[in-house]
Amino acid sequence: MHTVLSRANAILAYTVSVAGFLTFFCFLSTVFLDYRADATLNTVKVVV
């Protein structure tokens, strides 16, 4: 039988591995998106 510490270590290692995979997947899903946008700014005559 495995000890509680050994089981906790395995669960923690699995959790960290899954979190790392999800982080990398989120990075891959957003790294190639183009965030540039066209912007136009119209001004009126300013009277002081």
Automatic annotation (TrEMBL):
Topology term for the membrane: Single-pass type II membrane protein
Listed transmembrane segments: 12-33
Gene Ontology cellular component terms for the protein in this record: signal peptidase complex
Name of this chain's protein: Uncharacterized protein
Matching InterPro entries: SPC3
Keyword Calcium assigned: no
Homology family: Belongs to the SPCS3 family.
Cellular compartment(s): Endoplasmic reticulum membrane
Keyword list, A-Z: Endoplasmic reticulum, Membrane, Signal-anchor, Transmembrane, Transmembrane helix
Organism: Bracon brevicornis
GO biological-process terms attached to the record: signal peptide processing
